[in-house]
Design a protein that fits this description.
- By secondary structure, the chain is of the alpha+beta class.
- The protein has 2 domains: 12-186, Jelly Rolls, CATH 2.60.120.1440; 188-250.
- 22% of the residues lie in helices and 40% in strands.
- The chain has 2 helices and 18 strands.
- The strands form 2 sheets. The protein has a 10-stranded antiparallel β-sheet with strand order 4-3-5-8-9-1-11-12-15-16, with no helix packed on it. The protein has an 8-stranded antiparallel β-sheet with strand order 2-6-7-10-13-14-17-18, covered by helices on one side.
- Helix 1 (187-205) runs antiparallel to helix 2.
- It is globular, with a radius of gyration of 18 Å.
């Protein structure tokens, strides 16, 4: 994956179905929540209900996963070094101040429309999985499942172009709204997505685990968390190596 310094990007998600709740279903590492605008940050906990204007931020090697209406098919994972603000519940509007996300939207009867907005792009998905990365005002969109429509915008906010991404395709949008060529998603990113799906599967199985299996499940869960955390650390190592290569080439 290319190196992304995730700085001062505003992220917007709109669901035109009306979820009744947004809840934290998992926390890995150091994650903090400000439940109300007037409150201080506190340690995030599984089961926390999020309100209008709630904020979530993750630190290095940390992940937070939230679910909409307790539907495991509609999930947003907030990856490390990321900060989001929930601006509205009905419809849901999330602003990403910095960082990146994985989004899984498979239950289209509950989620009629799902949009992610940055200053220079809007993505519209329907029954899909995607990853969003940012660097300054540049946007990268990766389509892991289904299809995504990506609209680009110039600095004045005028629509410049539109592209359709199919499964296993990605695209970048520069700060002036210009598209890159559509490119195949790299093997490492596909592996990261598969780790993400396995991680979600483990979370879903939690509800079906009885008390007799609680300790065993806890061990399995920790193994899955370690695997997902390691995949994120490996991603960081790849990015650092690529950055060092660029520096060496330039020097």
């Amino acid at each position: 994956m290319k190196k992304f310094l995730l700085i001062s990007i505003i992220f917007f998600i709109s669901f035109f179905a009306y979820p009744e709740s947004i809840k934290i279903i998992d926390v890995i590492g150091r994650v903090y929540v400000k439940v109300l605008p007037t409150s201080s940050y506190e340690v995030a906990k599984i089961g926390m209900e999020l309100n209008k204007d709630s904020e979530i931020k993750t630190e290095s090697s940390s992940v937070c996963t939230i679910v909409f209406d307790n539907n495991p098919n509609n999930v947003l994972t907030i990856k490390e070094n990321t900060q989001i603000v929930i601006k509205k519940l009905k419809p849901v509007n999330l602003y990403l101040l910095n960082g990146n996300i994985f989004a899984l939207v498979r239950d289209i009867k509950d989620v009629e429309e799902f949009k992610v907005q940055t200053p220079n792009a809007i993505t519209g998905v329907r029954g899909t999985g995607e990853g969003i990365n940012f660097i300054n005002s540049n946007t990268q969109v990766l389509c892991f499942e289904g299809s995504i429509e990506v609209d680009s915008f110039d600095p004045s906010g005028n629509k410049k172009d539109s592209k359709i991404l199919n499964e296993n395709e990605g695209i970048s949008v520069s700060s002036d709204g210009s598209f890159s060529e559509i490119f195949p998603i790299e093997k490492e990113d596909l592996e990261d997505w598969q780790n993400f799906l396995e991680y979600l599967s483990t979370l879903n199985n939690n509800e079906d685990t009885d008390k007799d299996n609680k300790d065993n499940f806890k061990d399995i869960m920790e193994e899955k968390k370690d695997s997902y955390r390691e995949s994120n650390l490996e991603e960081n190592r790849r990015e650092e190596q690529e950055e060092d290569t660029v520096v060496d080439d330039g020097g």
